[in-house]
Amino acid sequence: MAQAKGYAVSDVKAPLAPYSFERREPREHDVAIDIRYCGICHTDIHQVRDEWGGSIFPMVPGHEIAGVVTSIGSKVTKYKIGDKVGVGCFVDSCRDCKQCESDLEQYCTEGLVLTYNSRERDGSPTMGGYSEKIVVDENYVLRIPDNLPLDASAPLLCAGITLYSPLKHWHAGPGNTVAIIGLGGLGHMGVKLAHAMGAEVTVLSQSLRKREDGKRLGADHFYATSDPETFKRLKGSFDLIINTVSADMDWNLYLDLLKVDGSFVVVGLPAKQVPIGAFALILRRRSIAGSAIGSIRETQEMLDFCGKHNIVSDIEVIPIQKVNEAYERMLKSDVRYRFVIDMASLKSS
Ligand code: NAP
Ligand code: ZN
Ligand code: ZN
Is the Cβ atom of 118 under 6 angstroms away from ligand 1? Predict the structure, then answer.
């Protein structure tokens, strides 16, 4: 066992604070990683506040991990010491079910071993990326392209893949129209990726405050959802709408913005259930769907796509001592567009 420093919440009402814990020694197929940066995902906030129930404390959050390999197990073939690597939302799956066998392990029948707030097969709790190091099976580690900086690549491991996967699945590309609801960590990656795929991209944001940013990120159009005119003007406009918002809102309003056969895809996770009217769906054969992160194969494909198109996240790098403040700012949509923790700051904690 190796001692690791990190930041954890001790229970549901506690702030994040310095915490020491143990990481396993690398097994035959394990890669030990020196974590350089970790992005802050809104999911981290949901989990430390136990908004979905079942949170495990103490909890070291963080699943947008970018770092460098420091040692490898005797049977590792995919990585070597010094490689730039990433770890996303999960570190294991059953490897045996239909989904695991068909590169859809994010939908593993037995359930994923998540990077934090979860349990390994031996029952030990997993601890995430707000820490100096991590040990992960090589099959659940990603390669970060050499031309991309580690800090701004970290958010690709969750925000990037969570938007890339539905954009690919619902065929975003030349000749079709995509709307992204919410220009936050996930949303701004959606704009960059959909634009790079060749789709016509619209941002639906609460106000016009971020309009210039939206255009710079690659949006063709930008509308405020606080303006009722937006919903009249955009009726029947989109092939695909991806909703990244976790706050409660009326999805029915957005269904009406879809074309015939259009899809409204949920990736943001409000705690409350949302009532849906049947008519908006049947009259134009519209669909509502959901999408969760992406497989390891697809995450690597996304990273390679980002390497090719020079896409990274727009980030604000913070020392770990500012993480509680960053959570408060995220809750006010005051981040452009992802906080990333510089793990070197742990040394002064
Ligand atoms: P974020 O950075 O906080 O962005 C959310 C955006 O939602 C905000 O920037 C804001 O955009 C908009 N918003 C906030 N409050 C709103 C309100 N009251 N009404 C309407 N819009 C509001 O969060 P994130 O990290 O992108 O995560 C978003 C959600 O996705 C979270 O629920 C997270 O748990 C979930 N998630 C899901 C997956 C998955 O696999 N499906 C993966 C990762 C995260 P504007 O200012 O532009 O309106
Ligand atoms: Zn996430
Ligand atoms: Zn499985």
Answer: no
- 296 Cα: distance to centroid of ligand 3 (angstroms): 13
Report the distance separating Cα 50 and Cα 31, nearest Å: 30
245 touches ligand 1 (CB under 6 Å): yes
Range list of H helices, the chain: 42-48, 98-101, 150-153, 159-169, 185-197, 211-217, 228-233, 251-255, 278-282, 296-309, 323-331
> Hey, which bits of the chain come out as E strands?
2-8, 17-23, 30-39, 65-72, 84-87, 90-92, 113-114, 133-137, 142-143, 177-181, 200-205, 221-224, 238-243, 258-266, 287-290, 315-319, 338-342
Residue 263's pLDDT is 98
- Using CA positions, which residue lies closest to atom 44 of ligand 1? 43
Q: Say if ligand 1 is within 6 A of residue 289 CB.
A: no
Rounded to the nearest angstrom, the distance between the alpha carbon of 12 and the centre of ligand 3 is 30
CA 44 – ligand 2 centroid, Å: 7
Which secondary-structure segment (H or E) carries 127? none
- DSSP class of residue 250 equals -
The amino acid at residue 234 is L
Q: Is the Cβ atom of 299 under 6 angstroms away from ligand 1?
A: no
| C-alpha dihedral sign at 241, 246, 247, 252 | positive
Does the beta carbon of 246 lie inside 6 Å of ligand 1? yes
Taking the C-alpha atoms of residue 264 and residue 266, their distance in angstroms, rounded to an integer, is 7
Q: How far apart are CA 267 and CA 190, in angstroms?
A: 11
Task: Say if CB 193 and CB 159 are below 8 A apart.
Answer: no
- Among protein residues, the one with the nearest Cα to ligand 1's atom 29 is 268
Question: Is residue 267 lining ligand 1, measured as CB closer than 6 Å?
Answer: yes
Q: Is the peptide bond before 254 cis (omega within 30 degrees of 0)?
A: no
| pLDDT digit string, tens, across residues 57-81 | 999 999 999 999 999 999 999 999 9
What is the pTM (predicted TM-score) of this model?
A: 0.97
Compute the distance from residue 251 Cα to the ligand 2 centre, in Å: 22
**Residue 66: beta bridge partners?**
37, 86
pLDDT digits (tens, 9 = 90+) for 93-125: 999 999 999 999 999 999 999 999 999 999 999
